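pasting for the record
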Amino acid sequence: MKLFVFFLIAGGAVWAVKLFITARRQHKRRVLLSTPFPPEWSVIITDNLPPYQKMSPELQQQLHVNIQIFIAEKSFEGCGGLILTDEIKVTIAAQACMLLLNRTGDCYPKLYSILVYPSTYVAGTRSLSLPPTNFSVRLGESWNHGAVVLAWDSVKNGAVNFRDGHNVTMHEFAHQLDQEDGRGDGAPILETRSAYSAWSQVFSKEYELLQYQTSKGKKSVMDKYGATDPAEFFAVATETFFEKPVQLKKKHPELYHELQGFYKVNPIEWVM
C-alpha cells in the first residue's frame, strides 16, 4: 500500500512538472508572438526564398509565427569557424517551417539543435586509438536524437535556386518529421490510421519504380538518391514536391496527392 501511494505521488509530481513546463512554454510563446515580426527578417525571406512572395498573406503570417517559435526555441551552433547571422538562422528556419504550413502539431518537438558548417563537411567514425574510418563528405544530416546538421552554402543555394529539385534543408527536416514516431522509415505520423493504407501502397509502388529507373539508368523527376531506402525516398519526394510540383504531379499524380494531403499546401500555386 505504501509503495502504491509512493508511485501515485511520484506520478503526480511528474505530471505536475510536465504541466508546469507546458504552461511556461505557452506563456513564453504568447510573449514572443506579441512582438512584431522583425522587418529585416522579412527582407531575408524575400531575398532568399522565392516562393514566399507568391504565398497568400495567411500563409506568410503562419510562416512568420513558425519562424519566430523555431528561432526562439531551437539552439543554433556555428561549426567549422562559421559565425552565425540572422540570415543563416532565418533562411534555415523559413525552409524548415514551410513543411509545417497548415499542419497541426508542434514545431519539431524532438529537435533541439541545428549545427551549421560553412560548406560541405566531413563526418565519420573517430577514435583516439584507431585511424579514422567511414569518413564521408556531407551537405547535411538528420539525427533521431534531436539535431540537424547543415552546410550553409548548400542551404542558401537550395533556397535561392528553388526549382532544381534539390533542397538540403527540406530534405533533412523531412527526415525529422519521419522520425517523430521514433522510426525513420518513410512513413511519418499521419492524421488517421486509415490513411496509412493508401500511403503505403502509393509510396511502395513509387519507391520501387524509382529503384527500377535508377538501376536501368533512366531519368526521373526525383533524384536517384531516393532509391537508397524508404526514408530517403520520402525526403527526396518532399524536396521534389516543393521544388518541382508541376513535374511531380504530371509524372506521379498519386504520389503528389499523398504529399499534398500530408503537407496541406499546393506548391504549384507558388511557381505559376
